[in-house]
Amino acid sequence: MRRTIVLILLLPIVSFSQDLVTNTTNRNTTSLNGTWHYIIDPYETGYYNYRYQPYDQFDKNNHSAFYNNYHTDDKLELVEYDFDKSPTLLVPGDWNSQNEKLLYYEGTIWYKKSFNYQISNPSNRLFLYFGAVNYKAEVYLNGHKLGTHIGGFTPFNFEITTIIKPKDNYLVVKVDNKRAKEAVPTINTDWWNYGGITRDVKLIEEPSTFIQDYKIQLKKGHNASITGFIKLNNVLKEENVILSIPELNIQKTILVNNNNSVDFEITAKNIQYWSPKSPKLYAVSIKTDYQILEDQIGFRIITTNGPQILLNDKPIFLKGISIHEENPMRAARAFNETDALVLLNWAKELGCNYVRLAHYPHNEHIVKLADKIGMMVWEEIPVYWTIDFKNENTLNNAKNQLTEAITRDKNRACIIIWSMANETPLSDARNEFLMALVNRTKSLDNTRLISAALETHHNDGVNIVNDKMGEYLDIVAFNQYTGWYGGSLENAPNAKWSIKYNKPVVISEFGGGALQGLHGTINERWTEEYQEYLYQQNLKMIEKIPNISGISPWILADFRSPKRLLPNIQDGWNRKGLISNNGIKKKAFYTLQAFFKKIEKEYD
Ligand code: GCU
Q: How many angstroms does the Cα of residue 437 sit away from the middle of ligand 1?
């Protein structure tokens, strides 16, 4: 008896969700967004019995288990929760910004949604899809445990064909955003730990044999060869799949047999390559005997050649800015196209052709919008600061988040860089951990560049970048905070840099804080003048850094951080934004805008 218990306890660290259904936007879906009832449960009373044993493992049908959503008319029976009499939260959305009481709340909140659903064709199948839930989600439908997902920034789904009822379904999600040392991210981050069902929830109805996933991109280093795979779910006989890209006169029949997935390669002529200046997306359709799935896909080549980054074989400079997934004006997690438009329109106004979506995969709306408007993207997983690099489960967790992010976004031309990590301390365990992620990335997608935000160190007045990981990354990117966390602004333009690798260099972060509207001299921290001067001096320095091919200063807009506590200046906000949390531009915004105008001329 004792051995079995140990085994079960170990397993929950890695996600139990099933293979991801991709391109959900163009499928037959029903949204479950809206108001959900919720119960705050810091002691996890609805999950553990008083012997601290999980009900869903020890006493599945116990009425006290919140996932049973138990009701009774029996006035004698003891029931100590009632979702329908409990308050509501909006989904998608973090809970912290929706209720003052929850601003700092970290722990378990139970969500419940009741709904009716009639499957339109008895042979069809039904899936429940979450865009993201921060951090650990345990999902139950009609009292059945569907599974667990770990990781707050990537999608997951469960098949519910056999559990769904035409009427009175109750979906219960236990969401726990407690931070933990072995988690990804770990216990310490400089962003708000927004909890909740933070992205769209939808039902997806599919034929019994359906198109699960596909990759359609230009072959690495080839400008006329479109390759990829088509993956069907539940292939019972050989299936004809027709891949069409009408504008490229492509109509290819691909036979998928019972190993479900087949690779293909097609030669294409006269491709109009995707780029920020002309973000051409082609209408693509995949047709089987049972469904047609459409998508909008761009084709571009992103490579490096020594110190240069080449887009469609032409050198480019990444005129970027870093962005957190937050709408500052709502002081909340961003989750829809409106939020994405606010953030990317600001980046466009700055003159950007590139954004670093920090430090975790952002929602699909902003990635799709970047594809449409022509904004190149750096996408990152939250392997941030002091991750538990020696912990096997932590590695599996990170690999899983990476896999889900790449699976979701691999057909987006705008994504040019997969980032493995941010500011992780040097050690052999760290290098092994990051190398495992680099290898996983290459196995899933070898058509994009791989990088990570590395750190610098100083010796004898020289800034040095010789992180071992630089050897394995396509782009040497690092964060440097000259004039804020150290180093003199005055001397910055003459700063010495020693960078070990003859690869493109990207400054993934630099910057300093300013309270919008606070004015003074260039020597007074927190004034707009100080931040403006910091940008002027850093940009002069950066222009001289060998192999410089791009920047993404920290950061587009002020963002909430529980680590920023200076009264009347920070008050829970990191003030390094070029735009305040009220959407007002600071002086440094225009400094960077002018710099990008100048660069534009040089690269035209
Ligand atoms: C770090 C880190 C950011 C952080 C920033 C800052 O470099 O990567 O997440 O917010 O610096 O200190 O403001």
A: 22
Has residue 236 got a pLDDT over 80?
A: yes
Place of tokens 């690269």: 603
Q: Which atom of ligand 1 is nearest to the CA of 484?
A: 12
Q: Which three-class secondary structure state does DSSP give residue 396?
A: helix
Measured between alpha carbons, how far is 327 from 324 in angstroms, rounded to an integer? 9
User: What would the pLDDT profile of 240-283 be if each residue is shown by its tens digit?
Assistant: 999 999 999 999 999 998 889 999 999 999 999 999 999 999 99
Helix axes 587-603, 528-543, angle to 10 degrees: 20
Q: Per-residue pLDDT tens for 558-583?
A: 999 999 999 999 999 999 999 999 99
3-state secondary structure 478-531: EECCECCCECCCCCHHHCEEEECCCCCEEEEECCCCECCCCCCCCCCCECHHHH
Q: Which atom of ligand 1 is nearest to the CA of 423?
A: 8
pTM of this prediction exceeds 0.70:
yes
**Which whole number is the average pLDDT over 120-137?**
98
DSSP letter (8 states) at residue 567: T
- The sheet carrying 201-206 orders its strands as 29-31, 201-206, 125-130, 156-159
Q: CB under 6 Å to ligand 1: residues?
A: 190, 359, 422-423, 479, 509, 554, 574, 576
Nearest CA to ligand 1 atom 9: 190
In ligand 1, the atom with minimum distance to the C-alpha of 511 is 13
**Greatest C-alpha distance within the chain:** 80
* Residue 374 CA to ligand 1 centre (angstroms): 26
Look at residue 181 and tell me whether its pLDDT is greater than 50: yes
Dihedral (Cα; 173, 397, 258, 282), 10-degree rounding = 90
Q: Which atom of ligand 1 is nearest to the CA of 509?
A: 7
- Spatial contact of 494 and 542, defined as CB atoms under 8 Å apart: no
- From 188, 359, 554, the mutation candidate for ligand 1 (largest count of ligand atoms within 8 A of CB) is 554
Distance CA 146, CA 160 (A): 8
Cα–Cα distance for residue pair 370/161, rounded to 1 Å: 34
Distance from residue 425's CA to the centre of ligand 1 (Å):
14
How far apart are the CA of 190 and the centre of ligand 1, in A? 6
Q: Measured in angstroms, how far is the CA atom of residue 89 from the centroid of ligand 1?
A: 30
Asked if residue 533 has a cis previous peptide bond (ω within 30° of 0), the answer is: no
- Nearest atom (ligand 1) to Cα of 453: 8
Average pLDDT of the chain is 96
Supply the pLDDT for residue 259. Answer: 82
